[in-house]
Each structure stands twice: as structure tokens, then as C-alpha cells.
Amino acid sequence: MQQTGGADANLLNYDRLTEFFEQNGMLSNGAEVHGILTGMIAGGASLKGDDWLLLLSDLIHEGQSFTPAVTERLKALAADICASMRDPDLGFNLTLPSDHESLGERLTSMIGWVQSFLVGFGVNQTNLTGLSDDVREVIDDMVEIAKLDFAVDEDEEAERAFFEVVEYLRISAMLCFNELGLKSGADCKTNQVLH
Q1: Element of type H or E holding 43
Q2: pLDDT tens readout for residues 52-62
Q3: How far apart are CA 46 and CA 24, in angstroms?
Q4: Structural domains of the chain, count
Q5: What mean pLDDT do residues 74-83 have?
Q6: Contact status, residue 21 vs residue 98, Cβ threshold 8 Å
Q7: Which CATH number is 60's domain given?
Q8: At what angle do helices 51-60 and 68-86 cross, to 10 degrees?
Q9: Chain-centre distance of CA 25, in angstroms?
């Protein structure tokens, strides 16, 4: 896979990712899959071997094996999340519908991302007592965000609030990764080779 803007943008495009998973018989959308993978990686799950794919299949595919195409896409997605989490320029972003979609749809996807992140994070981090105050606080905040039920006005103030929450989630995911993902010894590696 080439490291061009087109390849990465395509990989993380919400609509293309969701369509790809639908075509392959999966019920999770692009935001949910990205969220759960991000949670696993930020929580320190190892991506060595294929155990993480078996776990992921239990979480999002009723324990059924992924097709080779889905496996390849998931490995590429995980590699991209790892790389962007390590990016000194803070290049990590949530995979959500584009700004052209309604705010309601983007909020629903954001909540799906947060809920999925918490599931993925919980795979390795079942006891929060040993974590820093900062990580415990962001996880508590994410739990509250995941419970939100929106009746949304499509106005500038609501848009601004949405972007602030997304930015908070983005920074929070990187904070979790810096504390747990980097220190887990998992190396955040997949078998994916980038050229």
C-alpha cells in the first residue's frame, strides 16, 4: 500500500469503509469498526499474530471468520491507526461521516464510535484503578458521551459543540494510547508492510 494521501484517505473514508463492510456481510459501520480497533490499540491490545482478529470477530462479527478481503482491510486499518497514534504531528482522527452529512447522522456515528472504543478499550483494561487520573477521567467522560441522546438543532452552535467533542475524543484516544498502548509491550504492530 502506498503512503499517498489517496490511499490513506480511501482507507479511512467512512462511506467507503461502511459500504465495504456491508458488502462483506458485516453489521458494523466504519465508525464502529474504527472505534473498536482504536480502543483495542489505545488499551494496549497486541496486534501480533492473528489473535486480535479472532477477538475482533467475536466482538463485531458473531465469531465468524473474516473473509481474506476483510482481514486485509482490518490489518491495514489497524496499521493506519497505530501509525497515526504515534504521529508526532497528532495525525490521528476519528472515522466519521463527512461534514456534508446531517449533524444528527454525524452525532449518531460519533456515539457509535465512542461506544465501540469503550468496548475495544475494555478488552485489556477491565480495572481502571491502576490507570492515571487523566485516563480514568477521559474514560468516565467517554462513558457519559456514549449515553447521550440527542435532539439536535442544525445550527452553528451545535456544529461547534460537535467539533469540540470530536476533538476531545481524538485527544483522549491519543492520551490512552500514550499511557497504555505504547507501554503495553504490544509494539502496535501488524503484519502489514507499508512501502
Answers
A1: none
A2: 999 999 999 88
A3: 25
A4: 1
A5: 93
A6: no
A7: 1.20.120.740
A8: 100
A9: 20
